[in-house]
């Protein structure tokens, strides 16, 4: 044991000697080399520590990212407040509605109630916008939707040279969704998409009917004016570019107008119904790609079937009024009025009213389940 103590003492002396030797080194280069070696050793130790800690840090960062994503994807219905609902509804019913609407899981499809409540809240925001903002957005939609007709007419003119006109019309109609994708994803105000959406606050007693009618009037005016301006400028441009001819414009207008008024009305009802369903499905989707696919499928079906859409039809017939030889002003105005009414009926009755009624039945079911649960609890306590 005494030998161990002696060796330990000698080792300490050696350390002290080396330290003393360093302090008395005359050559500065040796000092610098010694300091550099110490610095490198310190950096290596730091790197080892960071590598050991990096898996934990990465896991922590990933958890934070997931939390942020979940926060960003939180459904808009979680912001539902009591003042978003009409005053006539009791506090108990308000709590029931919020419970049903917020019963949503990001890993599953949106619930029926959350879709409807989200649409009501979006519609409320539209009601609160200024008149200038509403008209400008609707005017933009009228311009953008004209891109569909411009593409269809160009394709029809090209295909009709090699195919019978009925086949050329069907194939050209495949381009019908282009303008709708631009409008819907760009969130401009298109009347047929907004028909059912804007009527929901009225059906639930949140907004008055007079305000809805005024809002519809602004959106229709913006869509029609924008569409007419597109027809005047872009269709004239297409004629000068020889993408299509006057005979092509007349032929397409007759394809739209060649029916009895009641047939056009029924076709417009179905088109309005499908556009209302489009608005519903777009709200149910969680990402942009899904929305594009849904808009393409439904509006493509409208174009394929040749159904009458008031805003696109406005451009189709007004183009023939300006540049063609077969459409009169009276015929154009009657057509526009019939199709607007048909689209409105289809969107309001077959989408807004039925979807809202279904939601109310669901609320009644939840209230009944809550009452039964309370009864069972009371019986247990007795």
Automatic annotation (TrEMBL):
Biased composition (Low complexity): 65-77
Protein topology in the membrane: Multi-pass membrane protein
Keywords from the UniProt entry: Membrane, Transmembrane, Transmembrane helix
Tree of life domain: Bacteria
Keyword Cell division annotated: no
Region (Disordered): 1-93
Location of the protein in the cell: Membrane
Pfam families: Form_Nir_trans
Residue spans of biased composition, Basic and acidic residues class: 1-14, 21-64
Gene Ontology cellular component annotations, sorted alphabetically: plasma membrane
Cell division in keyword set: no
Protein name as annotated: Formate/nitrite transporter FocA (FNT family)
Protein species of origin: Psychrobacter fozii
């Amino acid at each position: 044991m005494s030998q161990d103590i002696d060796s330990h003492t000698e080792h300490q002396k050696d350390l002290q000697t080396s330290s003393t030797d360093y302090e008395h080194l005359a050559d500065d280069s040796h000092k610098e080399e010694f300091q550099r070696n110490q610095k490198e050793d310190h950096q290596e130790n730091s790197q080892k520590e960071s590598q050991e800690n990096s898996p934990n840090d990465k896991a922590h960062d990933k958890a934070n990212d997931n939390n942020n994503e979940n926060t960003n994807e939180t459904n808009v219905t979680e912001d539902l407040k009591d003042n978003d609902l009409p005053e006539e509804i009791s506090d108990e019913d308000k709590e029931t509605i919020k419970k049903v609407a917020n019963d949503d899981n990001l890993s599953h499809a949106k619930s029926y109630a959350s879709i409807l409540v989200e649409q009501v809240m979006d519609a409320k925001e539209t009601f609160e916008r200024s008149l200038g903002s509403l008209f400008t957005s609707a005017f933009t939609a009228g311009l953008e939707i004209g891109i569909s007709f411009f593409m269809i007419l160009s394709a029809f003119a090209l295909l009709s040279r090699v195919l019978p006109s009925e086949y050329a019309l069907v194939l050209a109609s495949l381009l019908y969704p282009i303008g709708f994708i631009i409008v819907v994803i760009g969130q401009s105000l298109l009347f047929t998409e907004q028909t059912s959406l804007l009527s929901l606050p009225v059906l639930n007693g949140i907004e008055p009917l007079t305000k809805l009618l005024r809002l519809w009037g602004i959106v229709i005016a913006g869509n029609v004016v924008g569409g007419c301006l597109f027809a005047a400028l872009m269709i004239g441009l297409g004629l000068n570019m020889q993408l299509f001819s006057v005979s092509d414009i007349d032929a397409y207008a007759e394809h739209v107008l060649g029916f009895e008024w009641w047939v056009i009305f029924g076709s417009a009802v179905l088109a309005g119904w499908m556009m209302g369903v489009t608005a519903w499905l777009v709200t149910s989707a969680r990402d942009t790609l899904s929305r594009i696919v849904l808009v393409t499928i439904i509006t493509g079906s409208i174009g394929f079937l040749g159904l009458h859409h008031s805003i696109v039809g406005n451009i189709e017939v007004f183009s023939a009024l300006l540049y063609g030889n077969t459409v009169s002003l009276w015929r154009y105005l009657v057509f526009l009025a019939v199709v607007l009414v048909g689209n409105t009926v289809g969107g309001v009755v077959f989408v807004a009213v039925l979807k809202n009624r279904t939601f109310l039945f669901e609320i009644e079911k939840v209230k009944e389940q809550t009452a039964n649960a309370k009864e069972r609890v009371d019986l247990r306590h007795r």
